[in-house]
Amino acid sequence: MNTTLWCSIGFLTLTGCQNLRQEVDLDGLTQQPNKLIVAAFISPQDTVLTVKVNRTRPIQDPYNATSGLVTNARVTLTNAGRSLTLVYNTTHQQYQADPARLPIRSGQTYTLTVQTPDGLRVSGSCTVPPAVPVQTVSLDSLEEVNGNKQYLVRLAWQDPPRTKNFYQPIGAFVYLRSCGTCSSAEKARQRPVRAPIPFGTSTNLSGLVSDDLRDGSVLTSEWGALRADSTDKARSTPNTVFRDYYARATVTAVLLHVDEAYYRYHTAAELAARYDGNPFAEPVIIPSNIKDGLGCFAAYNKSIRNVVLKR
Amino acid sequence: MTYRCTGILLLCYLLSLPLMAQTNRLVTGYVLEKGTGQALAGAGLVVSSTGQGTRTDARGYFSLRVPPSDSLTITVTHVGYPTTLVPLAAYSLTEPITILLQPGRTLTEVTVRPILTSKQVGEALSLGKISLSLDQVRKVPALLGEKDVLKVIQLLPGVQKGTEGSTGVYVRGGGPDQNLILLDDAIVYNPNHLFGFFSAFNGDILQSVELTKGGFPAQYGGRLSSVIDMKLKTGDMHHLHGEGSVGLIASRFALEGPLVKRRVSFLLAGRRSYYGLLTQWLTPGEQSDQIPNRTWFHDFNAKVDADLSAKDHLSISGYAGYDMFRGQRTDASQSYLKSGLDWGNTTATLRWQHRSSSRLSSQTALVYTRYQLKVSSQEAAVSSDSAVQVYQLKYQSGIRDLTVKHDWQLRLSSNHALRVGLRGTYHRFTPSAIVETNLNAPPTSDANQPIDVLESGVYAEHDWYLGRRLHLNSGLRTSYYLHKAVQYVRPEPRFSVDYQFGKGYLVKGSFTMMNQYVHMLSNTGTGLPTDLWVPTTDRVKPEQAWQIASGVGKTLGRSAKPARHVTVTLEGYYKTMNHLISYREGASFLLPGNATKNQKARWEDNVTAGRGWSSGLELLLQKKEGTFSGWIGYTVSLTRWQFPQLNGGRPFFPRYDRRHDLALVGIYELSNRIRLSGTWVYGTGQALTIPVARYTLHVNNPERGLNPAQSVFGDSQPVKEYSGKNRFRAEPYHRLDLGVQVGSRKNDQRSTWEFTVYNAYNRRNPFFYSMEGKVDADNKPSRTVLYRYSLFPIIPTINYSFKF
After folding, report:
1. Of A222, B590, B741, B776, which residue is most buried, by most CB within 10 angstroms?
2. Residues of chain A with C-beta less than 8 angstroms from the C-beta of B282
3. With contact defined as beta carbons under 8 Å apart, do B191 and B472 qualify?
4. Any chain B CB within 8 A of the CB of A281?
5. Domain containing B77: what range?
6. What CATH number does the domain containing A154 carry?
């Protein structure tokens, strides 16, 4: 009896110690049809119209940056009965066309259609929002722990009421370096340096703003720091007084009034990049406004305001 | 205005209750367990000829009006005890009578065969509410021999389990945070040990466990989906007893007895795992790349009961449970890595029960609850200048409650009973606090200030028996919530009706509205301690649900003892839930950092709100007593959620939506010494989010707004396509457990050997899925494959328990 019992327990233990990790092949995962992915962002200020077209690759397939590139699609942009076909540019791996042939105008709705020779056809539409002017550009300074001052800039604008609005503030700090020892000829040869002003935060790198819960009010960007360009070899040292660093400087404040698809797509893309691979984070599903496909066809409009800084 | 309306509503409700004249004799007394003198709360007493009845209170006390007749018989029922018929002629009714029920013994069948009353049928059919037989809990085979009330609750219809082995309880489409889990009136926020594989409750010392999943009595509130009310038993006032068990993973021991004979008793119980000792022995030492585990859990219960007088009873009970995980890695240099994860619940309850008269009794309780989670990591590294840099991270979150409760029970007549009460809870939440310390630099902290909130409720509830067949239960609860300037007053009407017809048929319907002011954020839903409790604030609204349920039941069998009958119930429900909260896509339990440069990040930045619907049909076929007992529970249900900010605003199935759920439980008494038992469970797979494809995502380059010469598109990134949230169905879960108990008895000492086989046919049930790269042979390029990770293969267990 005892022998039988212990043999049984031994058998059960041995059978139990098999591999608890098993590869599974489930229907629905391997049977996924590939889809077209379209990315295009248009604005009235465009100098070239561009569209990226890719295909999805099944999750189990090897993957690299050029996987799924689509080079032979027919890409058409239409508006009010007029249409424009975009041509593939091998160098930039994108479809493009001259906007002069189909101008992008505020308030107009555009439809983008992509069709491949193997029968895939996707489309998307967007309406170009009006430009929202930058109302004020505020400057401020902050004394850091080490005694240095940090100079900050912020945009404000009036949100149009009773509509959902989304924005992306951007800016540039354009300066001519101060050079006390330079000759007049050297000064004449100086070119202005352009440094981006980051209006994003650690959780919102792109600085996108929604008017949710603040509809119709004056909205502001985050504070963006004025810094010398990272490629400027003569950057100020910690002991430099920043305002002595430049001879002339301008802040270029740009407000992109973007549509909802743009806002949601870019917000999700940033989350996906940040949390990919984190087992505790919820998966990020990238929203799409492309019918029968994936991606984003969105529009935005730009307003600009320059502020010359006093020394 | 809202307060006034609610007050008037409550007053109108109270005034509308009918007051009935009294004409019959009054019988009072106690129902106790034979041998131990343990008071049996919730025992049902029914006058067989009239159908009038009552239930015992927490002290086992009852009062019952009976007609002036000498040949009356009272039928006494209680879960886990044989049904007993008590002829009143044997008692002098001028004094309180004592009725003794013997556990686990079947009394001789009596020849009287009364017609089952609506109360008896209602109790036998248990629509919306199930009293768990702790005797059956001890007989059902369990993982590693650890008997667990929550895992037996998972076998009931309308209740679904979480992942493999976990104690997560999902009731009628609700999440695990929607269960009000009470241990002696104290809320237990994390009812898990060892990442949810074992519950925090020691089944040996529980007196009763009741699950309510619909038709909630007005005394309960604060959760949307269920109430699991557990009471610790009272220590034996007469004799010293002990019981314990030695298992593969843990051992437990309980001792009870009198401190002052017949007046004051004590109960002490402890449980300690030695899983950590095993892993410590099996894993390598500290000089290794592996991080050895130092893991254990323990819990302690203590209770003192005192009969201060014939009318007053005082009890003090406490619970402390703690889980601890430690890891350490050290190499030859001075570098090391230490990590820790600890969590624990502490509760304490002071309760005073007072009986003013045979009709009026009251209960006052003062309750303390605390739940705390700590994650710590300390790393030392040798820098290039040979200095040792020590970096330390501590994460802490928790909740602490102080509650005052008061209840009155008034028996207006044998047909009318009224319960009125109030509760007030002061919560203090610490949603998260992160402290980073570099011993060579000043510490930085990212702690949220504690959040203090007040949650309270006042209720009135009325039971009305109209004749032998109809029973109405109506109530109104008004909840009040205050957090800074945020306050809510919400009335919660409750109503249920049951009607007996034909021979042993019962039909029941109920409507309830519930509000929930505290919420749990969960990434995994598996009961991991990273689940975070958070309050309602200015940005997060209270969750609200209403539920309608209706069912029909039938008792089959001719025995006079309802527990020996086979009962069949079929119950359907529909529930809507508003303002449910969930993590936003991409969010995690650790705060992401500062939301803006001007203001501190708030946990609300991580959450989003939505609504949900659940409907289902539940079938229960049950036999509580006899040589062969057990039940079949089957549920077909559909739960959907819709959140504007999740899944593109489209409805989706929550992780624990389960179309089919089946449990078969059988217990067979082979002889007086040998008992066989088995369970088989089947459930539709969980709804999960799994990527199906990959693609390159292109974003706009906003810099083009500054310089048109710049590239149109920003940096591309590879992303995964999920085809929708929770669109992937895991493989179905099914498992067979078998058990044999062999008992022996010598004088007053009993011992039992138990052999259990968990997952008897070694099914590889999914615990989680993972996409991983795989390199095939022949130098083929690597490909991504889906792996299923299972947790428990077939596990044989031997367990020894004893009782004296």
Report:
1. B741
2. none
3. no
4. yes
5. 24-116
6. 2.60.40
Question: Between residues 219 and 258 of chain A, which touch chain B (CB distance below 8 Å)?
Answer: 222-223, 252, 254, 256
Residue B703 in domain: no
**Chain A residues 37-66 with a CB less than 8 Å from chain B:** 37, 39, 41, 45, 47-48, 50, 52, 54-63, 65
Query: B574 and B535: one domain?
Result: yes
Among candidates A20, A171, A268 on the partner chain, residue whose Cβ is nearest the Cβ of B790: A20
CA nearest to A275 within chain B: B586
3-state helix, strand, coil in chain B (%, to 5): 10, 55, 35
Q: Which of residues 192-211 of A touch B (CB under 8 A)?
A: 194, 196, 201-204, 206
Is A241 within the bounds of a domain? yes
Residue among A20, A285, A288, A296 with most chain B CBs within 10 A, to mutate: A285
- Assess B598–A contact: CB distance below 8 Å, yes or no: yes
Give whole-number Cα distances, B30 to B39, B67, B163, B311, B520, in Å. Answer: 7, 20, 43, 12, 41
Q: Does residue A233 sit in the same domain as residue A159?
A: yes
Report yes or no: B31 and B40 within 8 Å, Cβ to Cβ. Answer: yes
Taking contacts as CB-CB distances below 8 angstroms, the residues of chain A near B646 are 285
Return the pLDDT at B124: 52
Residue with tokens 């946990």: B603
Q: A186-200, B81-95, B396-410: which range is least confident on average?
A: B81-95
For residue B102, the domain's CATH number is 2.60.40.1120
Task: Clarify whether residues A112 and A206 are in a common domain.
Answer: no
- A200-256: per-residue pLDDT in tens? 876 677 889 999 888 999 999 988 888 777 666 555 555 455 666 777 889 999 999
Apex B163 CA angle, B160 and B169, nearest 5: 35
Q: What is the mean pLDDT of residues A67-95?
A: 92
Residues 627-646 of B with CB under 8 A from A: 646
pLDDT band for position A6 (cuts 50, 70, 90): low
B716 shares contact with chain A (CB less than 8 Å)? yes
Q: What is the pLDDT of residues B426-435, one digit of tens each?
A: 999 887 656 5
A13: contact with B, CB 8 A cutoff: yes
Last residue of a domain, one of A127, A155, A184: A127
In chain A, what are the helix, strand and coil shares in percent, each to the nearest 5?
Answer: 15, 40, 45
The range of the structural domain enclosing residue A214 comes to 136-263+300-309
SS3 (DSSP) at B6: helix
Distant-in-sequence contacts of B553-558, Cβ < 8 A, 24+ apart: B553/B121, B553/B124, B553/B125, B553/B127, B553/B505, B553/B506, B553/B507, B553/B508, B554/B125, B554/B504, B554/B505, B554/B506, B555/B116, B555/B121, B555/B124, B555/B125, B555/B504, B556/B504, B558/B113
Do A88 and A154 belong together in one domain? Answer: no
The pair of structure tokens assigned to B156 is 């009931």
Q: Using a CB–CB cutoff of 8 Å, tell me whether B772 touches chain A.
A: no
Lowest mean pLDDT among A79-88, B146-155, B306-315, B316-325: B146-155
d(CA B355, CA B28): 12
Nearest to A57 among B694, B697, B699 (CB): B694
Cβ within 8 Å, pair A41-B605: no
Query: Do the beta carbons of residue B674 and residue B147 sit within 8 Å?
Result: no
A201/B594 touch (CB, cutoff 8 Å), yes or no: yes
Judged by a CB distance cut-off of 8 A, whether residue B290 touches chain A is: no
- Residue A272 contacts B, CB cutoff 8 Å: yes
Domain co-membership, B197 together with B324: yes
Backbone angles phi, psi at B738, to 5 degrees: -130, 150
Distance CA B646, CA A268 (A): 11
| Domain total in chain A | 2
Would you say residue B256 has pLDDT above 50? yes
